[in-house]
Amino acid sequence: MSGNDYEADHLDTLDRDLGRFSTLERAASYTARPMVAPGLGFIFIVLVGLIAIVSLGETSNSLFIVVVAIFGAYMALNIGANDVANNMGPAVGANALTMGGAIAIAAVFESAGAFIGGADVVSTIATGIIAPESMGTPEYFVWAMVAALLSSAIWVNLATWIGAPVSTTHSVVGGVMGAGIAAAGLSAISWGKIGAIAASWVVSPMLGGIIAAGFLWFIKARIVYQPDKIAAARKWVPVLIGFMAGTFATYLVLKGMKNIYPLSIQSALLAGCAIGIIIGLLMVPVIRRQSEGLENRNKSIKVLFGIPLVVSAALLSFAHGANDVANAVGPLAAIVQVSHTGMFADQVTIPFWVMLIGALGISVGLFLFGPKLIRMVGSQITKLNPMRAYCVALSAAVTVIVASWLGLPVSSTHIAVGAIFGVGFFREWDAERRLRKAQLAIPTEGRMAPEERRRRKLVRRSHVMTIGAAWVITLPATGVLSALLYLGLSMLIK
Prior knowledge:
It is a multi-pass membrane protein. The protein is mainly alpha-helical. It has helices at 3-56, 62-82, 85-93, 99-117, 120-127, 138-162, 168-184, 191-224, 229-256, 265-291, 298-304, 306-341, 352-380, 386-406, 412-440, 450-455, 461-493.
């Protein structure tokens, strides 16, 4: 063998060995990838414990509160992983936002909403479901809140794992209810509020679905099915954007800004109308410029809804942060206050470090675990485009306003997912209606078979059943788990 042949053979062997090492590295990287997010989540929880230690200093019960703060961080991570998908899923599914862009926008606006308007709901979560004085001693109340916090976090984590968007508010309420019953019996519970929450299982998705389907019908009738789609879009898209601006202004005043400047629903509606008219007029020349040169096709119209959809997703995230941060830190705030004062209080004051845990936890949970539910909500229930996703986002805001006016408690999760169902089922009905008309002009032997028509469904029924079942069992599941946890913890007291 010549020297050149030996060198070539040696290089071939080296390349094969390096290839094996490269394959092993890729395999190791693939194996380790599922552990990256949980590992980073664990690091965040450890940092929360350090923040709590620094904030509390040396007190008699500081170690206990640090442990509870860790539970609160765990719950905040799960809220970010599950609940925020309802705001960002439609925009991502419609390709108006990338996954990275959605996570960045949601993180900023969720945190802003939590810090600016998040304190108001905490007192309701902490003291509105059970009467603290019915617990006998503050110590038992504290353990009930610990059980509620941990049980709801475990349930939301499980729901995220199976791919079901559930109401974190219902999870926390179920946890508080279960611990309250285990501690003080059925009389400790405000059954009127529990009944209203149960009614919202039906009211929330039905309202969201009907309103979203109504908006989609309007867009199709006034723009999509018109001979000159661009002219119709120039006329109606500014109106729709103005309506969206007014609706979200009203929504934010009612749900996100009430701590800063509370207004009645009538005043909020007047402010919303004024803002909507101004924005609508400003959008007339903008839409005209955007529509110049566009072809008379449905694809062209979708472009005009992209930016409004991104703005609506950001505003929904702000309002969500203002409201749902209470699910993570409401029980924690109650525990901190009772532990420090040794007595019950109707109003719970929230230390800055407690609110920080909730705000950052939601953002970190969204970043680490949120993409799974965002994809499911955005693309796996039914196919969304910017127009359909716009209807979903607008429906969420309108439904909350209507429910506030009627005095009905509703779930933002149920509204958003119900709106997606509504859009999908409306598309099925509309497609079937148009197909029936088209088939009348076709000879009988050339018509589509009924089996094939049934197969072409636009909403995945498996997701409807999974999500519906998860909604129904959320309250009893967290209630039972919380009661069991409380009974276990109460043995430590005795």
